[in-house]
Amino acid sequence: MQRIDGYAPIRDYALIGDGRTCALVARDGAIDWLPLPDVDSEGVFWRIVDAERGGAFELQPEEPFETTRCYQSGSNVLETTFRTASGTVRVTDALVLTDTSTLAPMRELVRKVEGLSGAVRMRWRLAPRFEFGRRETKTGRREGRYFACAGANGVLLSTWDTGDVDVEDGTASGSFDAPAGSEALFDLPLTHREPIVTPGRRGAEERLDRTGRFWLEWSSRTQYDGPWRDAVVRSVLALKLLCFAPSGAIVAAPTASLPEWIGGGRNWDYRYSWVRDASWTLDALIRLGYEDEAEAYFWWFMHASRRTQPRVQILYGVDGSTRTSEQDLNELDGYRGSRPVRVGNGAADQVQLDVYGSILEAVSLYAKRVGRVDGTTGKAIAKIADYVAKHWRDTDSGIWEVRSRETHFIQSKALCWVALDRACELAESGVIPDRSDRWRTEAEAIREFVDEKGWDTERGSYVRAPDLRELDASLLTLNLLGYDEPGGERFNGVIEAVKRELAVGPLVYRYRGEDGVAGKEGAFLTCSFWLAEALARAKRVDEASELMGELVALANDVGLLAEEMDPETREFLGNFPQGLTHLALVNAAVAIEDARREP
Amino acid sequence: MTIWGALAGGLVGTVVLTSGLRFAQELGWTRMDIPLLLGTAFTDSRSRANVVGYALHFVNGLLFALIYYAVFAAVGHAGWLFGLGLGFVHALFAGGALVTVLLPAVHPRMGTPWSDAEETPLLEPPGFLLRNYGDQTALATVIAHLAYGAIVGGFAAHLAGWT
What we know:
The structure holds two protein chains of two kinds.
Chain A: E1 13-17, E2 22-26, E3 31-35, E4 43-46, E5 56-61, E6 66-71, E7 78-84, E8 87-95, E9 107-127, E10 138-142, E11 145-150, E12 153-160, E13 166-168, E14 171-179, E15 183-192, H1 201-219, H2 229-242, E16 243-244, E17 249-250, E18 273-274, H3 275-287, H4 291-304, E19 315-316, E20 327-328, E21 342-343, H5 354-369, H6 375-391, H7 410-428, H8 436-453, E22 455-456, E23 461-462, H9 476-480, H10 489-501, E24 503-504, E25 507-508, E26 523-524, H11 525-537, H12 541-552, E27 564-565, E28 572-573, H13 579-597
Helix pairs in contact in A: 2-13, 3-4, 3-5, 3-13, 5-7, 6-7, 6-8, 7-8, 11-12, 11-13, 12-13
Chain B: H1 2-26, H2 34-39, H3 46-75, H4 80-106, H5 137-160
Helix pairs in contact in B: 1-3, 1-5, 3-5, 4-5
């Protein structure tokens, strides 16, 4: 792995997490990203946005090495194997789950080093830098152990068989031999607003083993048997890491400001729960049999949106807050000079009418597959449908939350139709109060608008908006959500237009037009999976399978995908790993398998 | 007689407190729903939870009125102003410990800051001073508890003849 100006390629990261926060581990053994205490908190390791000042936890052989990596079977516990001229060493990394039967740290990073052959000299360096460096990190030794703290946050390093710990300039470091058969351990308890719990070696190792067992048991419940099972299981494990356990929220990605183009300014904080993305994640979780997570999210959504219902904000904080103000961290360099580094997200105040279609689709699936929707919730859902019936004629910023002027995005209108269609279904089955006469009338009016104003006969496809006569890959979602008859003229028309105008090999751009933000971006991987799913729904199973095979092969060595990809260099771009990409992968795989099995 | 006065104050105070918080909800100031939070400790049906929660909240209102009464009796003084002060302390306790620490610790369907991937709680934890339920939740809680305290203090003073 070659770092450029201190930055690892995004493709060379793997994700570990515990349902509360997540860390990125590079192929060279460095942990370059870890917010504390929660996934949306400020970073303690944040070298992905500033290679020089950002904190990190490095661990690698002293001599030149080659690396292979994998997750433990069906798990989010990562194994990195270093091969050197002197021997082989395996490092196992995990943010371990809290064992509630005993006093355990509130967050805990465990790194286990096992000598497999020969004898490898390892070196390590721990440099925590709290709150993106905006607050001074105090460091020192306590009872012989290295500690670092800032405000209410702190870490305390315990080591076993890793040699002496040197502390200099706020950084702990050391080196040690790892001969065949040896086992060394780093345990880093992290705390927030409570005393640090310092576990013993046995407790830390037990939690590491227990964490691996939990993930394996959890992932073995995946209800998918098809040719892409490995990719689907990896995707659902990644999605589970994006579920914020304390509240049930689901974040779009665990990182902030990984750029959509190297050196560009399209750097956003995705550590929020987008209602659209999370609703689709809920769909994917239900389809794969993970009903507990789906139920937790559903409750969270109904509670988080309580203050604004029937209007729904497009994104919320993981604690349900509406405080998402965007802030530029101008003192940070940004990933390979991609500035500004942003935390918070200014899109929260946008109007995006398509979210209502995603919500009602998710509620419909939830009611069918998971269980009851009680009367109070049913009334709230019906009010949301009323809101859609009243407001679908408004302009909005569309699914891609463009920062140019609002307009009548066709995808948004069609998703409003989906919302009212699902509301009618829910009313017919008695789940929500029945006001379907009005909803049906408005749904027909939407269809009339979309079919007349949104269809381009010459192009043989819908267009982005009546005043934006260009293609948008999000129009594929009309196919996925049942707006058009599968395999019909319009259904296939959109597929062909996307392939013709937006695809570069297996990759698909979102659109080619302007969006109010300067700079380029890569192809959007979710759109590629949407195309594969649309092909499957059109019964073009061979085409869908071929495309799916190409797309799955684009994942990195541990099966993870980013938001975007440079079609020329195949470099990953954007926040990583991206939930929307992985859930699109899951839905495409399931759709292809369904299409293959249907007569 | 004086205990009945405090209990009557507790009943009226709880009606005002609960209604006040409900208005705050409807005005979009807060997502906090005390009956739902209490009721979901016993059922995952929102409708049933609301019924159970309201009943529990009124029982709690009466119990707190007795605690207020004990303080009045110990000091030998009651009144709406003294009740107002106790209401403020009550609000701090509710927002700083009772709902934020103790309730998540015993609530089977509520997350805590320690919930991890093994758990799928249905309710998010309130956070310190209930701020997870909206920025103005703490303010609404304080105002509602001030009203409750003043009513309990006023009723206890009037019916007991204390001033």
